[in-house]
Design brief:
The chain is mainly α. It is built from 26 helices and 5 strands. It has a 5-stranded mixed β-sheet with strand order 2-1-3-5-4.
Length: 569
């Protein structure tokens, strides 16, 4: 194993090539590197400050859960106190609760953006420092800021990294936890002590709390690392690790059964392929397209691995990439909703970075005789072909299209049987404009109002006093396990309905074709883009209508709300 054997070989200083001799002033190089890192860090801070309003609607769900937790309702989606496992990352939720508690008056968007951006920069610092601590080669020891320079140059200006770092989502904490998992595992074998394995078990469990799909990394990476090492009793030590982690997971499962009645987050069910046969937007979230985005970002590290991997380091790389392969394969079984910029794949970045660093360090520390067996021209040709395929737009488009045709089933279209008419047509708003308008309505709603909608992140954060019905099943156990049911929906008697996104055509048709809808609701088609309905016999009808009317006048100043109501069949 590299971490055990690397120190046994003397440093071949005479074979490090002209590059090392050219860089003969480490202090100057490190000073220039420090200036570059600080400059990019300044840009990162400036970018974060300029993008404090995140439009990632899902991120605001953490604020709603945090508000309810601080109010004493536990982990609940609604103030009724029913415990809900709708927040995929319980660890990130805990962080948001703490930050919200310390800064109760902070703007929700600012809080989310700054928190995720801070975790993003902490991830890069941890990754850079961790790599520097495992260095064996004299060259990398002489230039300790080299890794930091590479990370800063590749990630801080990257649109993908900037997007995720300022989205307010749990991506940054997942990156950070996977980085800790890698370095605690590397340190475990180096120290070879009891506390080391406890630290690995803890980091594996924390990574799982950051995102449940990190469980594959948490189990496979430490296990493979130990099994492929040259350690004595490696089978026994691997068994101790797996046993300890299994015990924690058993306690975790029991606790979640007791609290939530379910060990898995509700999005696990709601985002599984085939959950909603009437969802017409599956083609938008193409996993092949996102793989291209991901590999373009980490391609420099793949190049380093290809040109530096030699000897037993190649076997060692399996430890890093088998868990990634299994995890990425699993992602093809889910609908990657809101998967912009390869969000699901992003937490795998530390595995590529550390693997590249160890390959390079091993190459610089050992003789280059082995590498002569594998010609550099051959490797260069492979990398050129790969780069050509990755950056040719037609290749990405063609492969994504082929995957869509072969593996993404066409949604079943549920036509609306009911015919209705209106006296006027409502102008279309933008997606974010509609969300903003509905949130302004929600703030005005009486306490306890039952509001059914699908775009509920910002709404939920800004209106903690209302009860939000989730027909998609992301925060509703019944719909998550059984799918949408119009009978269940109307039995709950929502006071206000903002219709789901048009992609959810089965849910929309089920609501509109139900006789109860026309008997009990005033319907305003296309109001705030998706359509709005108010229950006529709601005890809060006057206040709800007034809230809708006030906001209506702001967004539709030239259209009267009365003329926009639908005439029932």
């Amino acid at each position: 194993m590299y971490s055990l054997n690397a120190a046994k070989n003397p440093e071949p200083m005479q074979k490090t090539g002209n590059l090392l001799s050219a860089l003969s002033k480490p202090r100057l190089v490190n000073a220039v590197g420090a200036v570059l890192i600080l400059s990019l860090l300044g840009f990162y801070i400036f970018f974060t400050r300029a993008n404090l309003v995140t439009t990632f609607d899902d991120a605001y769900m953490f604020i709603r859960y945090a508000n309810n937790a601080i109010a004493g309702h536990g982990i609940a989606w609604n103030p009724d106190g029913i415990q809900t496992y709708g927040a995929t990352s319980l660890l990130y939720l805990l962080i948001i609760v703490l930050v919200r508690w310390f800064f109760p008056m902070a703007e929700a968007s600012h809080l989310l953006t700054i928190t995720s951006a801070s975790l993003g920069i902490l991830f890069l610092i941890t990754l850079g420092v961790g790599c520097a601590r495992i260095t064996h080669s004299n060259f990398l020891k002489k230039y300790p800021l080299l890794t930091g320079i590479v990370l800063a140059v590749l990630f801080l200006p990257s649109p993908g990294f900037l997007f995720h770092a300022t989205s307010g989502m749990d991506t940054s904490i997942s990156l950070l936890c996977n980085t800790f998992l890698i370095f605690t595992t590397l340190g475990w074998l180096k120290r070879n002590d009891g506390p080391g394995i406890l630290l690995v078990i803890a980091s594996a469990y924390v990574s799982f709390l950051a995102r449940p799909d990190n469980l594959i990394y948490s189990i496979m990476f430490p296990s493979l690392y130990m099994l492929l090492s040259s350690e004595e009793d490696r089978i026994k030590k691997t068994a101790w690790f797996l046993g300890g982690l299994a015990f924690l997971l058993l306690l975790d499962t029991a606790a979640k059964y007791m609290i939530f009645g379910d060990p898995l987050p509700l999005p696990f069910y709601a985002k599984t392929n085939g959950y909603d046969d009437g969802y017409a937007g599956a083609f938008r979230w193409n996993p092949i397209s996102y793989l291209f985005d991901f590999f373009r970002l980490i391609f420099p590290f793949i190049v380093i691995i290809v040109f530096s991997a030699s000897g037993n380091i190649r076997k060692f790389l399996l430890v890093f990439f088998l868990p990634v392969l299994v995890t990425f394969t699993y992602y093809f079984s889910v609908v990657q909703i809101m998967g912009f910029y390869a969000r699901y794949y992003f937490p795998a970045i530390p595995f590529f970075v550390v693997a590249a660093y160890l390959s390079l360090d091993h190459k610089l520390h050992n003789t280059t005789k082995e590498s002569k067996k594998y010609g550099y021209p051959y490797r260069l040709a492979v990398m050129i072909v790969c780069a050509f395929l990755l950056w040719m737009p037609s290749v990405k488009t063609s492969l994504a299209r082929a995957y869509q045709i072969a593996y993404i089933p066409k949604a079943h279209i549920y036509p609306i049987a009911v015919k209705y008419s209106t006296d006027s047509t409502i102008q279309k708003l933008s997606w974010w404009e509609s969300i903003t308008a509905i949130s302004e309505i929600s703030i005005r709603l009486p306490k306890g109002t039952k509001f059914a909608l699908s775009e509920y992140g910002v709404v939920g954060a800004k209106a903690p006093q209302i009860n939000i019905m989730d027909p998609l099943g992301l925060h509703d156990p019944f719909f998550a396990h059984h799918g949408f049911s119009a009978a269940e929906f109307f039995d709950r008697k929502p006071d206000l309905i903002w219709f789901p996104h048009p992609d959810y055509n089965k849910i929309i048709s089920s609501i509109l074709d139900d006789p109860k809808f026309w008997a009990e609701y005033d319907y305003y088609p296309q109001a705030f883009d998706y359509g709005l309905a108010i229950r006529r016999d709601s005890e809060n009808y006057p206040a709800i209508y007034k809230a809708v009317e006030d906001v209506w006048k702001i967004y539709y100043p030239s259209q009267e709300i009365e003329k926009s109501i639908a005439h029932s069949p």
